[in-house]
Design a protein that fits this description.
mainly alpha
Amino acid sequence: MPVPIISYINGAQGLGFGLIISSLTSKYRDLSFLVTFGIQLAMYATTVVYPLSVAYSKYPKYVWLIKLNPMTPIIEFMRYGFLGQGYHAWGFLLYGMGVTIILVILGVLAFNKVEKDFIDTV
């Protein structure tokens, strides 16, 4: 799979998360501190720091939890595209794309709902 398509999926996922988080932080200001901590924690829940093959060999009972993270297929396909090694099942990528589409839809709905109150809270 070409890297630009994977980058587009990654950007759409960032857009979905960004819309949801910005909608929530306009009302709950302290959420920004939790998001900062959550992003650092999510790096260890995703295969950013380690490949999925390491998780299969060292922590096989937690692989299903790592695979639930929608960012894992994107990183694994990028790893395969650039390094030539990585877990690259098409069903795995379709799961990530499905979650991305749901995140963007939920993000747009949440943002449109809170958009009219932005000026009051900012």
